[in-house]
Design brief:
The protein is an alpha+beta fold. It has one domain. It has helices spanning 2-24, 82-90, 161-174, 178-192, and strands at residues 35-42, 44-49, 54-60, 65-72, 76-81, 96-104, 107-119, 124-136, 149-150, 153-160. Helix 2 crosses helix 3 (161-174).
Length: 193
């Protein structure tokens, strides 16, 4: 058992050195066809208007763990710390998720996301968003603006290869991304390294 623990520690240190070296050389090993979806669920939320298309999206009752699903170039799924992902994302100035959908009730709001802030104590997650489209399952005469308040919602965020490279870079810069690096990059390295 002690030998296995020593081996695991040496392997962990080697992976940290490898990832740090790659990140410094801007060679983060993410395949170009990489595609992932991050899923965040909330008990409720609000859209607060900043201007005609920009809003602050506030999600409350957000789990400490988010769900992720890799759809290309292989299939895989798991969970990750909401705190680590939002911290890694925020470490990269101006990083924008171009393709996201918030689904609540009979409404899907297509939007871009930036500047996540997660408060673990209140289980609140906020983003700055640009709303690009609102889809209503059953058309009504209601205004085509996002709902000011809503109950249970699910946020789907598409992550492509370039976004993932920047997110991993942010995790290294932020300095607390080791768990995130191992769940994501160890998986990538096993298939592409």
């Amino acid at each position: 058992m002690r030998l296995l623990t020593s081996f695991s520690l040496v392997a962990l240190l080697a992976v940290i050195v490898l990832f740090t070296t790659m990140a410094q050389d801007d060679e983060i090993p993410v395949p170009d066809d990489y595609a992932q979806v991050i899923v965040q669920q909330a008990d409720s939320g609000t859209f607060t208007e900043i201007d005609d298309t920009m809003y602050t999206l506030t999600l409350t009752g957000v789990s400490e763990e988010l769900i992720w699903f890799i759809e290309s170039p292989w299939l895989d799924a798991g969970t990750e710390s909401t705190y680590l992902v939002s911290g890694s994302w925020t470490a990269v100035e101006g990083l924008i998720a171009e393709d996201a959908v918030l689904h609540t009730g009979n409404i899907s709001v297509v939007l871009t996301l930036t500047a996540p802030e997660y408060d673990e104590d209140t289980a609140t997650l906020t983003y700055t968003t640009t709303v690009t489209e609102i889809r209503v399952e059953q058309e009504t005469d209601d205004d085509k603006t996002p709902p000011a308040t809503f109950e249970a919602a699910t946020l789907f965020i598409h992550i492509d290869a370039e976004f993932m490279r920047q997110l991993v870079s942010g995790a290294l810069e932020w300095g607390e991304g080791s768990r995130y690096l191992f769940t994501e990059l160890a998986c990538i390295m096993a298939r592409c390294g």
